[in-house]
Known about the structure:
14 helices, alpha/beta, six-stranded mixed beta sheet, Rossmann fold, 2 domains, 12 strands, Dihydrodipicolinate Reductase, domain 2
Amino acid sequence: MTYFDLVLVGFGxxxxxxxxxxxEKKVRLRGDYGISWRVVGLATRRHGxxxxxxxxDIERALKLVDAGMPLGQLTEPDAVRALxxxxxxxxxxxxxxxxxxxRQLQQLVVVETTLLDIEKGQPAIDHVLAALRGGAHVVxxxxxxxxFAYRELDAAARLARRRCLFEGxxxxxxxxxxxxxxxxPAAEIEGFRGVINSTTNHVLTAMxxxxxxxxxxxxxxxxxIAEADPSFDVDGWDAAAKTAALINVLMHGxxxxxxxxxxxxxxxxxxxxxxxxxxxxxxxLVASAERRDGRAVGRVAPEELDTHDPLAHLTGVQNLLVxxxxxxxxxxIHQMSGGLIQxxxxxxxxxxxxxxxxxxxEER
Length: 364
């Protein structure tokens, strides 16, 4: 049996859905994968922080957040004062890793789901580094760490002999990174192209049906897929961060979202869409990468696609990523739908991957 103590840093839409998925899958995780878990720490921007080495009542935590109440109610007053009800995620991670050593807690896993910072990837990078250096594994759905600091984080994980997994960073729960890592040994990823931002794809396809930009965007915000400030999506920053993450991990690159050639969809007008359709074409926000002079470079921009292009047929929140390999040619993975449950599942699958790897090591 593998016992995990979980620290959830970030408890917004994704973090809450992950917590509910843990509860829903608790029996399955224990029976099929030998995983037992408890949440010992929570840090949120709006509802404060809580820590209890004996475990927190995660169902009560979800109710408190739904009611807009502080998470400090989950713990004894002395525990709240010791950590501070307004403590940062970084402070919680440092406290939890120190408690792990002092109290000899079970294996600690930090689940990082804070919002993407497109300037420097912070504070998520500091969260991941502090967790690894403190002896904790990390699973994250945040694109920032791998888009800005993958080499540093990978080195820190190897030095600490801990795992840092991030399947939810690109295309929700679709196993892009796992696919390459586990099933394509010795294959080289020479490039890729795809549609990897659900919000912009939904907006562009809605505009093909004469619906307005504002209506389509509001639907994505209501679903929790687009943020209240949609600029990360429509200006191409989300796709650029995902492109940087894919390049850094799959192509051994060293880029950031700021070095990706980026154009968003703000200037894609209904007239431009109708003109493209009249000529038998479709406009999609395409992310791509290739090697130039031995260096991996990336691009995000709206492109007019011919009807034979599989990317042209993606509608709504569908995504598709085509990997170009040296030995298998092109491989495509198609996401028919995406949302909070898929991203939460990516975190869960990373947790299972850590448990499986540990079980294999114990057998050896």
